[in-house]
Amino acid sequence: MSLKGRASGGGALTSTCNAVGEIFKIAAIMNALTLVGVAVGFVLLRIEASVEEAE
């Protein structure tokens, strides 16, 4: 009987931990996408500057 109580409590705790893990995974992906976007923006700025300088 106590095992059933533990299983249901563990299930709720496990689902909460899974949600927290998913949130942190998504946050890490969003940070990576932001950094990649900033890097691409700087590369485009450098390309634009070199094209303007060549003209």
UniProtKB/TrEMBL annotation:
It is found in: Membrane. Pfam families: PetM (PF08041). The chain crosses the membrane at residues 23-45. It is a single-pass membrane protein. One of its GO terms (cellular component) is membrane. Its main location: membrane. Keywords: Electron transport, Membrane, Transmembrane, Transmembrane helix, Transport. PANTHER family: B6F COMPLEX SUBUNIT, PUTATIVE, EXPRESSED-RELATED (PTHR34951:SF1). This is Cytochrome b6-f complex subunit 7. It comes from Brassica carinata (Ethiopian mustard).
